[in-house]
Design goal:
Two copies of one chain form a homodimer.
Chain A lengths: L6 H5 L9 H8 L5 E2 L11 H10 L12 H11 L6 E4 L2 H12 L5 E5 L4 H9 L3 E5 L8 H10 L4 E5 L11 H10 L5 E5 L21 E6 L12 E4 L2 H10 L7 H11 L4 H22 L3 E2 L6 E5 L3 H13 L2 E2 L11 E5 L3 H14 L1
Parallel strand pairs in A: 1-11, 3-4, 3-5, 5-6, 6-7
Antiparallel strand pairs in A: 2-8, 7-8, 9-10, 10-12
């Protein structure tokens, strides 16, 4: 069989960044009763968005506006930037793929933290570039070490999520601002702010699109509760955005998602309500861990890393949870993998999780 | 400004394969009353799909199954292939992008017809490969010339849509089968069958996934009326599908679209009803053209190419239609661009089109 794959694709392993809960359900022959492993929101979607999407389904035969004009207009207003400083696409994953493709030549390097978001790594490998990792500082990503590695490797890309996935930790605006200022001239910082709306207090530095050394990524997948709709955006200097527009799939966006996102942006009441609910739910997990004598890392996301002090214990716990119909994940790499990542679920999911978790200790 | 774009992205022009109707509406400050330019279906979606999608919106916070297991299962059964011979993604555009990425090294060549689907060309350019074009034979793509060019240029890829967009013409199964048999060993035929369900009689050759020289592309965008949902699939030898799985965005699919597509596949009554409606509607366009003394090319798609005998006349007609709130497109390249492409619309869209078209002759 001589399929003319590129040398790169021939060299790639058959991997996926994550195994989906449905795959585990099929392997186990049982449906999960609690789905708290994929950082999906348990706090619904904006009623305005739901209504708008319901109304738009009947027009499913129409392609979405390839310029996402109205949505970019609303987001530009929200973030006080220009429309040509925003690129919409079907999820941060898609935007990260485009970013790697447009900024990394094969063989060049991208810097990230060891154990950070695997899909970024997947794209770096997928376009033939090389990953450089720096360790977490405890359970926090280490901006200074990331910048140092970027400089020493002359890496065109450096990735940081703030707040962080999989640990839920964060840095304040001043720290991130300092990191942005130190991005060297040959590089761009990919600042993944997928979880930013969950932060108890503002931690996002001011958006400065005059600086071509940073791309900000925001999504409707997390606080907006629309992961299944696949819609997110990048905010950056207009020259960077013009790069996305040269290579993106202009007709790749789901029209219903586009309409739902617009309705979400215009629903000013929704995110504060989600933030309050998440904050309360997070406190319950912290309290629960504390009662069990376990360390839970303070989080600004919709999940909490709870430390079981050993990778084997954490792994056994994930298995035990799955055996009892609770879908949860854990960080993939040492030393983070002494923790399990407790997603914030509905009340009934949390009740089930608590019982199962206790019985597995 | 020193943005570290790759040399390739720096060299790419700022183009889009198509201008969306919304862009034209914004330029003109007026909404179209007939939208018959983007080959979108005017014949609705399966009621089962609509219901399933309505019911699933409330779970928008969940990612789609990254393996699309149930949908691949249903499609495998439908096409009598194995599940690992199918790859689902967000539209044929996305699948063509992945195909180019996995089978074309920069600088290698892809063969297509001069004036055929621009988004394929966009991806070829976007991954740094080169396009080789062969002329249409009249208003038909020319399988023999395509194969000859594939051989002489040692091109890893050759693209053909059957039925053809933008002309609506087709080749029968025997001709396509012969083309498949002649694909040289270093090459893969990309057989885009986006419009196949509209054909009045079966023209698709039997699917043979033991042959690694062909990838079949099918979509829910056209006959299934779900263009805005962005879901399509490739059928191919499992080694080719494993290539897609190495580089695709595993969590890139819209969950509602996935659910809608599954309901569509299982609705056996829907496509025959659409086919009948399309056939009738096509006959009306042919009849209308004939009454005006114009040549309309017989079509197996949801549009009809009507020949105005000169590119200037065709262009003026598209402008005149837009001036009167009818969105229509025309082939982009000579000699096809003496035609306008009349999309099949609703009854009221067709009525408006007829009046405006006549007044523009």
């Amino acid at each position: 069989m001589t399929i003319p794959f590129t040398a790169l694709v021939n060299s790639l392993p058959a991997t996926t960044p994550f195994v989906g809960p449905e795959t585990i359900e099929r392997q186990r022959g049982a449906i999960f009763s609690a789905r708290i492993g994929a950082n999906e929101s348990a706090f619904g979607i904006s009623p305005n968005a739901l209504k708008a999407m319901q109304d738009s389904l009947i027009n499913s035969s129409w392609y979405a506006d390839p310029e996402s004009h109205e949505l970019r207009q609303a987001l530009a207003e929200k973030h006080n930037v220009s429309m040509d400083e925003i690129c919409i696409d079907s999820g941060i994953d898609t935007l990260l793929g485009l970013t790697v493709r447009m900024l990394l030549e094969p063989g060049q390097k991208a810097v990230t933290s060891l154990g950070a978001y695997p899909t970024f790594n997947y794209h770096v490998a997928g376009f033939g570039a090389q990953l450089v990792t720096v360790p977490y500082n405890g359970f926090h990503e280490d901006p200074e070490a990331l910048i140092a590695a970027t400089k020493s490797h002359k890496a065109p890309l450096v990735y940081l999520s703030n707040p962080d996935n999989p640990m839920g930790t964060w840095h304040g605006a001043a720290t991130i601002d300092q990191m942005i200022n130190e991005v060297p001239e040959h590089s761009v910082l990919l600042l993944d702010e997928a979880y930013i709306e969950f932060a108890d207090r503002p931690i996002a530095p001011a958006i400065d699109t005059s600086n071509p050394r940073v791309i900000r990524y925001r999504t409707f997948s997390k606080a907006y509760g629309m992961a299944g709709q696949r819609i997110a955006y990048a905010i950056a200097h207009k020259d960077l955005i013009s790069g996305f527009n040269k290579i993106r799939n202009h007709f790749g966006l789901n029209r219903v998602a586009q309409i739902g996102a617009l309705a979400s942006v215009n629903d000013n009441a929704f995110i504060p309500a989600v933030r309050a609910a998440v904050s309360k739910s997070r406190a319950q997990v912290m309290q629960f861990a504390s009662e069990l004598g376990l360390y839970a890392e303070p989080s600004f996301t919709n999940f909490v890393a709870v430390n079981l002090e050993s990778a084997d214990r954490a792994k056994a716990m994930i298995e035990h949870l799955a055996d009892n119909r609770v879908f949860m994940r854990m960080p993939g790499v040492a030393p983070l993998n002494s923790c399990v990542r407790v997603g914030l679920g509905s009340e009934s999911e949390f009740d089930l999780f608590r019982d199962v978790f206790k019985s597995g200790l």
